[in-house]
């Protein structure tokens, strides 16, 4: 399983050291930043799964930092959790309004904090695993409704065309040969000719754009967007 990445943004060095030590013991890949501006640059660089963020910091406070982080497209699915000594209700409300997923007051034992982090990341992983939507660039595929949209244009595809597209989109970068596609889309009990796949590929290319489906050496297919 891929190691989860956590970014700590806090101007107190001892806090960074304590949290880094405990999170790394738990198996996380931890990066740190000592102010909001540095934290934003670090987040762009490493694309963390979760960010633990202080409120009171120099140069750029936590609320403004959170707002700026939420504007970055690549970080839309990143969890942002405030870890602050500010326990007032208005501070917590400001944190959630800025886009935070949770707000934790700093008077918390490391083991309890680790449990909260584990729970948050586990819930996110489960939600991602159960999601049937695929988004690649401007291509959106909804498995439940069998709808496909590209650059905002909606397409209702025949089932086999949809199944073929979903297969390729679920395995971006993988090249499928005809036998694999026949087995996964049509099944072993159905006899179809090899040219059937070519016809479906051609139709998808015509509907979704010439560069969406790529043929490799006449025997393989992969999705490119």
SSE layout and pairing:
Blueprint lengths: L4 E5 L3 H13 L3 E5 L2 H11 L3 E4 L8 H9 L8 E6 L4 H9 L4 E4 L4 H21 L2 E4 L2 E4 L4 E4 L2 E4 L2 H12 L5 E2 H9 L7 H15 L4 E4 L3 E4 L2
Helix pairs in contact: 2-3, 6-7, 6-8
What would the keywords be for this entry?
single chain; 225 residues; alpha/beta; four-stranded antiparallel β-sheet; 8 helices; 44% helix
Structural summary, described in words:
- This protein has 225 residues and is of the alpha/beta class.
- It has helices spanning 13-25, 36-46, 62-70, 89-97, 110-130, 159-170, 178-186, 194-208; strands at residues 5-9, 29-33, 50-53, 79-84, 102-105, 133-136, 139-142, 147-150, 153-156, 176-177, 213-216, 220-223.
- The strands form 3 sheets. Strands 2-1-3-4-5 form a 5-stranded parallel beta sheet, with helices on both faces.
- Helix 2 (36-46) runs parallel beside helix 3 and helix 6 (159-170) packs across helix 7.
- It is elongated, with a radius of gyration of 23 Å.
- The two termini are 27 Å apart.
CA-based shape: elongated
Order of helices and strands: EHEHEHEHEHEEEEHEHHEE
Number of helical segments with 4 or more residues: 8
User: Main sheet?
Assistant: 5 strands, parallel
Number of strands: 12
| Share of residues in helices | 40-55%
Assembly state: single chain
Structural class: alpha/beta
What is the CA-based Rg, rounded? 23 Å
Neighbour order of strands in the largest sheet: 2-1-3-4-5
* Uncertain spans: none
The amount of beta strand, in percent, is 15-25%
State mean pLDDT (0 to 100 scale): 84
